[in-house]
Write a structure and sequence with these properties.
By secondary structure, this protein is of the alpha/beta class. About 40% of the residues lie in helices and about 15% in strands. Helix 3 packs parallel to helix 4.
């Protein structure tokens, strides 16, 4: 015989059951705390002395800046700066999605680490859900260090579950890191409001944010590095390998990097820079940027023949500059 419990009684006990459950979760999560000892302190490298930076300093030894107002330009400068690194790359951000922008950044940062550049990545833990296996694999690179700011000790793939499991740490978890800076060789930096995700660079299909940044150089850069070091060496910045109790997923990391989008303009620049005899351009809608124009002109001066069909490519360069001989129609 089954006894039925009146609905009114169930409704009376429901708040009690919820309260007990939450209290239990808080008791469990109170055991979650930051590591008792800080990680070993690390500091920014001295400003690099590679030839490109020496040439830049000869042109501008004061503090200077370039406004990065649109997303595409901002992304291009980021990737160019990473490619220019010879010694160190420090990146701090609140959000880093593994979409087109995020995977392109990951691709370039890994390439920099592969050529010997020291890479330090500091990311807030608010949106690092279900990525620990990839991040541990990334941090396993001998030239990459990855720290998580103010992390959730009980790491779940579900946002709701994670919040419930960490209720006892609310006072600490409520402090988030919204700083965004990328420092290259302690020579130049990008600072501003963009997180690393498609919607901050005008590339999201449904919604985009308008943000602004500066590319800066001069004596201000070492000062920005000092601020980065303050956060990097803080007790609340914890190496991912001390948090994630999961095996590194090297396959997932490799697939993320392989799926990074190819920047067409950048690939074209490589083509023109490496050309020795001839480049044939066949595109109805290729309107060259000023940077691509300069590369084309350098190729022509080296004696490379540039043939374009239709002629829009050549006509655009002709209208903007004094057309160098060597750019012809391939009709």
């Amino acid at each position: 015989m089954c006894l039925s419990v009146p609905k009114a009684v169930m409704n009376l006990w429901r708040p009690v059951v919820i309260a007990v459950t939450v209290a239990g979760l808080q008791a469990c999560s109170s055991l979650s705390s930051l590591p008792p000892a800080p990680s070993p302190s690390e500091f920014a490298s001295a400003p690099a002395v590679a030839p490109p930076w020496a040439e830049l300093e000869a042109l501008r030894s004061d503090n200077w800046n370039i406004l990065l107002n649109d997303g595409v330009t901002a992304l291009d400068w980021r990737l160019t700066a990473i490619e220019s690194a010879t010694q160190s790359l420090d990146l701090q951000t609140f959000l880093w999605s593994l979409d087109r922008v995020g995977s392109a950044m990951l691709n370039h940062l890994l390439a920099a680490a592969d050529r010997g550049v020291r890479v330090r990545l500091l990311v807030d833990d608010s949106f690092l859900l279900g990525e620990d296996d990839l991040l541990v694999a990334l941090a396993d690179h001998p030239n990459i260090s990855y720290r998580v700011f103010n992390p959730y000790q009980r790491r779940q793939d579900s946002f709701v579950t994670r919040e419930l499991m960490n209720l006892g740490d609310f006072d600490r978890r409520n402090h988030r890191m919204h700083n965004k800076v990328m420092l290259v060789d302690n020579r130049v930096a990008i600072v501003g409001g963009r997180n690393l995700a498609d919607e901050y660079f005008g590339l999201h299909e449904k919604a985009n944010f308008r943000d602004m940044e500066l590319l800066v150089g001069g004596s201000i850069v070492p000062r920005l590095s000092e601020v980065f070091d303050d956060y990097w060496n803080d007790l609340w910045s914890v190496p991912i390998e001390e948090l994630a109790y999961i095996a590194p997923d090297y396959q997932r990391l490799a697939e993320t990097v392989e799926n990074a989008p190819v920047q067409l303009a950048r690939e074209l620049i490589r083509v023109f820079e490496s050309a020795e005899e001839e480049v044939i351009v066949i595109s109805a809608y290729l309107i060259p940027s000023p940077g691509l124009e300069a590369v084309v002109e350098r190729a022509v001066r080296r004696g490379v023949r540039i043939a374009s069909s239709p002629t829009l490519f050549a006509q655009t360069i002709t209208s903007r500059r004094t057309a160098p001989t060597g750019i012809t129609s391939a009709n």
